[in-house]
Design brief:
By secondary structure, the chain is mostly helical. 73% of the residues lie in helices and 0% in strands. It contains eight helices and no strands. Keywords: Membrane, Transmembrane, Transmembrane helix.
Length: 174
Amino acid sequence: MRAAVEWIGLALVIAWVGFAIAGPVGGGAMALGVLVLRSWLPVAGLMALLAPLGVALPALALRQMAAGMGVAVIPFGSVELLVFLLAYLVFLASALGWIRVDLYRLGYAPVPVAVMVLAICGYGVLTGQVFLPLVAVLGQALWIMGWGSSNWFDHVLHVGLVPVTIVGLILRML
């Protein structure tokens, strides 16, 4: 079941690319291609490169494709994106040992995870955002069920969010 969830996640992320190039038909074709050609070396290599995908990147892909088809979504603010980018870069530096505090280890413990999920849900209530609380709660559910990583951060974050956020910020400046 865990592998199926990862393949669906990759199909959604690749569908996002196809959607950006050729609309819904391109997105559907790309998703189908990923699922049908799982054993093809380029597709399997892409999975090896991006795994674990977690919740955030596929959910962001779904959100952007839905917005592209006319579904109303609350956009992230530039300040929100900048704060996320800076915080995530500090988190990555911590996980790599470049900073003395190991923030990544908090993702293994139930109490810190629960506090972070509640804080994200509170932020969602204050801002009217539904996306971030859904990602946090779904990531927590997968983490509790043991589907994938034993660290909650692996379910709700992905290093691919760094270039996506940078591109988003650059596009706002143009």
